[in-house]
Fold this sequence. Notes:
This protein has helices spanning 2-21, 44-57, 78-86, 90-94, 145-157, 182-195, and strands at residues 31-36, 64-67, 98-101, 125-130, 133-137, 162-166, 199-202, 208-214, 217-222, 239-243, 248-255, 258-265, 270-277. The chain has 288 residues and is α/β, with parallel strands linked by helices. It has a single domain (27-277), classed as Purple Acid Phosphatase, chain A, domain 2, CATH 3.60.21. It has a seven-stranded mixed beta sheet with strand order 4-5-6-7-9-8-10, with helices on one face. Strands 3-2-1-11-12-13 form a six-stranded mixed beta sheet, with no helix packed on it. Helix 5 (145-157) packs parallel to helix 6. The longest helix is centred in the first third of the chain and has 20 residues, at 2-21.
Amino acid sequence: MRRTTFIVIFLSLVFVAFAQQLKLPNKPDSLHFAIIGDTGTGGRAEYEIAAKVAEFRKVFPFDFVVMMGDNMYGGQKPKDYEHKFEKPYKALLDAGVKFYAVLGNHDDTNQKSYKLFNMGGERYFTFKPREGVRFFALDSNYMDKRQLEWFENELAQSGSAWKIVFFHHPIYSSGGRHGSDLQLRSVLEPLFVKYGVNVVLSGHDHFYERIKPQKGILYFVVGGSAKLREGNARGAEFTAESFDTDNSFALMEIDQDTLHFQAISRTGQAVDSGSYQRTVTAKKQKSE
Ligand SMILES: [Fe+2]
């Protein structure tokens, strides 16, 4: 009896510890997902972040993970896919969690055909995890005319209230190493605004940064899930919050018109959290 009581108390404490760390509403009916970026080192930090992501899934049951690119540094042979992705993320893969990747500058284009990245053999693709929410995955290495036309067409056709776009190179970042890709911004931002994109996720700079909404759109940099560029999030006029003293990942939850977010460090600390009300509505298309 005493032993049972002890176990109950112990489990309650564990639950409370997690509940304190989790800053999201965690409603059973809302959409839950995780974000990792620049993961593919095969090093210790990648494995530790992966373990932490899996640990958080026990209390925040997300169905899928979006990957911001640089999924694989260095070699990209079958053994690298194992060591730099399948092994660290084994617990999540075994649990049936889906990963959706985009290509970073270190990634071999062949990754698009790797089944567990769910890219369907394409450099850019979309998926709709539930009614009203669509993700658009882009290849920011080569933002050619064909991709832009495809993207605009997909945006125009989408009736989803939530439009979330992700690609490797951030168009808003205070990173000293890379920072904002202004060329990319000049071609993408007008489309985001025109078609009512709500949230944009990127990586490349090896830290976490949340940008104040720009033209109503919320931007995140999640590029520190294995590599870390300490002190490199220099902060800019557009910076809302940043974290560059340890590796990190993020969790998000969409509950009707509100997106809740939380960034978490390698040690499980909540380093940013908040919510964003969807205000941008796609302009009605003229087509009858
Ligand atoms: Fe990169």
